[in-house]
Specification:
By secondary structure, the protein is mostly helical. About 70% of the residues lie in helices and about 0% in strands. α5 runs antiparallel to α6, α8 packs antiparallel against α9 and α10 runs antiparallel to α11. The N and C termini lie far apart (about 140 Å).
Length: about 325
Amino acid sequence: MAAKIQEAQQHCRAAEKYLKTSFLRWKPDYDSAADEYNQAAQCYRIARDLQNSKECHLKASENYNKHKAFFHAARALESAILVSKETSSPEEVYNLATEAASLYQQQGSGDSAAACLDKAAKIIEERSPELAYKLFSQAADVSSGESSQHQGAEYISKASRLLVKLQWYDQAVDSLRREIGFHQESGNTGAIGRLTVAVVLVQLARGDAVAAEKAYKEWGNNCEVAEMQTIEQLLSAYDEEDRESAKRALMSPFIRSMDVEYARLAQLVPLPEALEPTPSAGVRENAAPSYVSPNASSCERASPEGDSRPDNVSYEAPVPPPDEEELC
């Protein structure tokens, strides 16, 4: 290890000499200096001195950039990301990756730029999923600019699944729409049907069953039989507010066979509220007695539901009690 460190230091001293001007060298030799820094970085990496290895890669990139060797400058930045992936902050990895991708594009290597962004996103995905989503999305943009729709769909698929994992459902819907657009341009209708189920799940997770139904109407013609049955069972359950039917649909084998993020999402989708049965009319307990007018006759008071006497039966009027004066 000590020998490798000494060798690295020798390469660094040689690089500094190439950068100095003299009577015979009017301009710094950036290309030779970059090569020396690059070799020093390799020696430091073997000696497990990752911090110095990273610094040498950055110096190599800087000198390659001054020499207009953009591809080698980007490659040096990418190497700096890899040797420092455990020690660099997610923000630093993000900045180095975007700078490297820009240099790759200046050289005309769009595929290398997208691959660099993808690698960096995987490195910081656990620590900073928000920045990882941005890198995946940028990689998809770069691939679409290179007319590589299939590769772009893979990158945007990673972004969509990451947004679902973060429960950023509004952004996830937009990302899934972009993913469907990539597959439409490449003619991959089979993937569109499966993504339609994913859009329906995300819309239901947002609590918007109407938007879920619109998504099915928009892309449902690309669905296969199993996908159509799953979506129709879901939409029917939410339309009828059938809680048990919705639960069965969300636990269907087709949904469980989807990507892990969507299978887990199905467990988080809020179920519809069950309709409460209408209360039947009946006699209330402790209810107040029915109102009877004081002007009603005694018979009417005794029979509040109405007079049920036969028509042909006559009744004599009640005889009033004798007056008290007459009794005297």
